[in-house]
Specification:
It is built from twelve helices and eight strands. By secondary structure, the chain is an alpha/beta fold. The chain has a six-stranded mixed beta sheet. The longest helix is centred in the middle third of the chain and has 22 residues. The chain is globular and about 55 Å long.
Length: about 325
């Protein structure tokens, strides 16, 4: 039975009822991409597209590059991606990723509008977000927040490490958006509160706090990235269904501290409000006149902020 992760905010054009599950829907042509030790089968659905197919290939390659840089290699050895072209629309939408489909460890279906531009593909975050889903064991519904939180947090960090975004851009976006994950009245913790804000941004808050705390406790020698690489390297990818506690324990062993399990036990069934304003100050992220952010190099945790987005050394890339 396929495991599923990813957003499903896409219009129903009737195809899924006619053709069955997404991996059974029609394919007009295919390409093969080599990325980070993996083979990615890129399938194009029938349908109109203003751009040449090469633009779609480059878009997927950029996302695969970012994920490869973050994890040291592509998380699974094979992935299938089905790009469905939608007449009359523009932009990227409706990404969903499943594990264990028709012999592929991961399968992603994503929609691209007919009138999508190269500029929109370069700015897109969704393809990278979906690829990050391949890099963690599939979870039961009560733990969907960790799947979406990881993808929400890692996607921009990975693109900075790969040179596709600036650190100022993503820290500014975090300052703007991260509070959407704050617990609201009636919240019962991450495992028991399944709103959009808590699932995506509450999960991202968990990841940010874990990253900073691991680095504080290890003298900035380890971070969340080390924990997540260890989980993938131990076989914890989307085509497995490990309990969350197993994945967190593997991550903690890799960092030598118990931040992930401690933080999960604290936040799983209790609303925990993180003082984000204090955290931004400690990381040295300050509002700039006219919008955006500037960095305070003298802030107490400025070195941690820099380490989070620093590209891994060449020796760490497989």
């Amino acid at each position: 039975m396929p495991f599923h992760a990813g957003a499903q905010h896409w219009p129903d054009h009737g195809d899924r009822h006619h053709w069955g599950p997404p991996w059974r829907q029609p394919v007009a042509s295919s390409r093969t991409i080599e990325a980070g030790g993996a083979r990615i089968q890129l399938d194009f659905s029938p349908g109109p597209l203003d751009l040449p197919p090469a633009a779609i290939v480059q878009w997927v390659q950029r996302a695969a590059r970012a994920v490869t840089v973050y994890y040291g290699h592509f998380p699974v050895d094979r992935e299938r991606i089905l790009v469905q072209f939608v007449p009359g629309q523009a932009g990227v939408f409706g990404g969903t990723t499943w594990g264990g489909v028709d012999g592929f460890p991961a399968f992603t279906r994503i929609h691209v509008g007919q009138h999508t531009t190269v500029k929109q593909l370069v700015a897109d975050w969704m393809m990278t977000h979906e690829m990050v889903h391949t890099a963690f064991p599939s979870q039961v519904d009560s733990h969907h927040w960790i799947e979406e939180g990881l993808a929400t947090y890692i996607e921009p960090v990975a693109r900075v490490q790969a040179g596709f975004l600036t650190a100022a851009k993503i820290w500014g976006d975090m300052v703007r958006d991260m509070s959407q994950g704050d617990p609201q009245p009636g919240d019962e913790g991450l495992d028991r509160t399944h709103t959009w804000g808590r699932t995506y941004w509450g999960g991202a808050q968990f990841c940010l706090l874990a990253d900073v705390t691991i680095r504080k406790q290890t003298g900035n020698r380890k971070g969340l990235q080390d924990a997540l690489r260890a989980i993938v390297n131990s076989g914890g990818t989307i085509n497995t269904n490990w309990p969350l506690t197993k994945a967190l324990a593997v991550g903690d062993e890799a960092t030598g501290v118990t931040v992930l399990m401690d933080q999960y036990n604290r936040m799983k069934d209790t609303p925990v409000k993180i003082d984000l304003n204090a955290l931004w100050r400690e990381l040295g992220v300050e509002h700039a006149d006219g919008g955006g952010v500037i960095f305070n190099a003298a802030a107490r945790l400025a070195s941690i902020r820099r380490a989070i987005t620093r590209a891994p050394k060449a020796a760490d890339r497989q």
